[in-house]
Amino acid sequence: MSKIQVSIAGGSGYTGGELLRLLLFHPHVEICQVTSERLDGKPVHKAHPNLRKQTDLKFCSLSELKECDLLFLCLPHGKAMQQINEFKKKAERIIDLSADFRLNDTALYEKYYGKKHVIPELLNDFVYGIPELHREEMRSAKYISSAGCNATTTILGLYPLYKHKVIYADQTVVEVKVGSSEGGNAFNASSHHPERAGCVRSFMPAGHRHVAEMLQELNFGEPVKIHFSATSIDMIRGVLATSHVFLKNKMEDKDIWKIYRTEYGNEPFIRIVKERDGIYRYPEPKLLMASNYCDVGFEIDPHSNRLIVISAIDNLMKGAAGQALQAFNIMSGFDEKTGLEFPGLHPV
Question: pTM for the complete prediction?
């Protein structure tokens, strides 16, 4: 089988680095180019020291980008849509890891991003990038827009409950704890200094842009309202979402288990984590470091109709590069686990 020729536009950041690391060891991929305006001409290990002795690739500028089979866009938010028509000339298939094409509603985009979309006529050309929700569409897709990390964590935790309509769709409260590798982008702190993770204590009480994705993907015909906040904590990688939803009718653990098993029983990258004993009885983001898994757990409040859902991912993997590679595998006809088999670390 001939290898698929891929390039990465914007490869010097955390997301681009993770994607590069994964693609270097993918059996069906040949990496052609990786761009960075700041590091043009320099070896990729200048930005990603973990890749020393793994590749001789050097960064090039966007102006040097040549045609390839598939182009990954890891550019800052707002940049991809400005040049998307040029990128389409370079590759027949595109996977965009920015927020530019995640929403299919221009009004929703304007509300949460505070500006008009540059090229709204292309919004519906992109498949939203959570494979567990849109796998069949991805198989024939030309363009995929990877989901946001907070959105991925929250949506995967709540999707079965919304789909089965067992909760009040307009009564959801979500509190997310994130590591500094996401916090730098989400809270305008420095995203290039993970050693400063302990100094980051940013808080976003309302208005997070990823809520738009949740509203879009959790809409099953009932009005959806999500009260969301996010805090960056003393952690480098990871997202932990604690979601509070309210059941329409009294349910037991076995009923909730059944719903999650119905939706996720055959999903390769979702694990239901709910143990009666031990240290890790619920999802723990540290255990997911460098893996593409999303762990989901839950607890019914015995004194009310409240259901607490806990979901966790590595924001740079299932929340970015790993999920993009999973989508790439699906659209290319490969086993979607290819290159994503790493299970995480323990102890951490």
Answer: 0.94
